[in-house]
Amino acid sequence: MKYLLTIILIIMIVKPVHAQVSITLPKVEIDNKETEGIDLSTGIKILLLLTALSLAPAFLLLMTSFTRIVIVLSLVRTALAIHQTPPNQVIIGMALFLTLFVMAPTWQQVNSQGIQPYMAGDVEYKSAIEQGFKPIRDFMFRQTDEKELALMVNISKMEKPQNEDDVPTHVLIPAFILSELNIAFRMGFMLFIPFIVIDMVVASILMSLGMMMLPPVMISLPFKILLFVMVDGWRLVVQSLIAGFN
User: Fold this and answer.
1) Spatial separation of the C-alpha atoms in residues 81 and 221, rounded to whole Å
2) Sign of CA pseudo-dihedral 136, 142, 144, 149
3) For residue 114, which of 130, 102, 97, 136 has the smallest C-alpha distance?
4) Are the C-beta atoms of 70 and 95 separated by less than 8 Å?
5) What's the pLDDT tens digit per position in 203-214?
6) Taking Cα atoms as reference points, which of 90, 89, 92, 98 lies closest to residue 241?
7) Cβ(155)–Cβ(189) under 8 Å?
8) Residue 35: what pLDDT?
9) Any idea what DSSP says for residue 21?
10) How far apart are CA 111 and CA 66, in angstroms?
């Protein structure tokens, strides 16, 4: 009982002391001063750079030639019925370097029209972004089918654009992706035709010989690889892919 009374007495003494404690927060003032003509600080530049790096994979996949190239190369492997050769790392690496090759002129224009003037201090960051993004938009417009672009314009319920500048980027990108997918699958279909013929011929021969239990794929695979090597298939595929972007 003695200890209980002591604890209650301490609480009654300490409580008023804590009640008088006040915490002063730092005062933050926000002015509406005009900031036109003022360049971005170093911290904002670093933040924008990190944001661009985080979005770089999406830009590489969907706003360049990477989508068409990687799909066609994957379909070539599927048509040959060798699902693990070349491995995925080789397919993606090959598609990446072919993308760098195809997009090199466009990225040089981005560097000369947007990045270098901004680094030299000749233009502000907004103008640099607009000027630097224009070559990428021109590339996407050249590869975008009019039907796909009209579809996205109708879905967005926007007014009919009079020229390319009236088409927003968020409408252009889906239309470009759809066009790339259509072209890639059309090329893949053409690649499948000779290999399907080989499979049908081998299957017919095996059936005529009564070898019903032997999988035709085991017999046709060497002939498909031989045909692909004799016509220099990889060179023809890469040549067709690069020529399609010119």
Assistant:
1) 7
2) positive
3) 130
4) yes
5) 888 788 777 777
6) 98
7) no
8) 43
9) -
10) 20
The pTM of the full predicted model, rounded to 2 decimals, is 0.71
**DSSP label at residue 166:** G
What are the CB-based long-range contacts (under 8 Å, 24+) for 178-182? 178/145, 178/148, 178/151, 178/152, 179/143, 179/144, 179/145, 179/148, 180/65, 180/67, 180/68, 180/143, 181/67, 181/71, 182/145, 182/148
Give the 3-state secondary structure of residue 207.
Answer: helix
Listed as own residue / partner, the contacts of 184-191 with beta carbons closer than 8 Å and 24 or more positions apart are 184/67, 184/68, 184/71, 184/72, 184/75, 185/71, 185/75, 187/68, 187/72, 187/75, 187/240, 187/241, 187/244, 188/71, 188/72, 188/75, 188/76, 188/79, 191/72, 191/75, 191/76, 191/79, 191/237
CA separation for the pair 39, 124 (Å, rounded)? 7
Nearby residues of 167 by Cβ (< 8 Å), 6 or more positions away? 141, 149, 153, 161
Any idea which residue has 């200890």 for tokens?
Answer: 3
pLDDT tens figures, 156-192: 888 888 887 788 888 888 899 999 999 999 998 998 8
**CA separation for the pair 150, 171 (Å, rounded):** 10
Q: Is 57 left (phi over 0), alpha (psi -120 to 50) or beta?
A: alpha
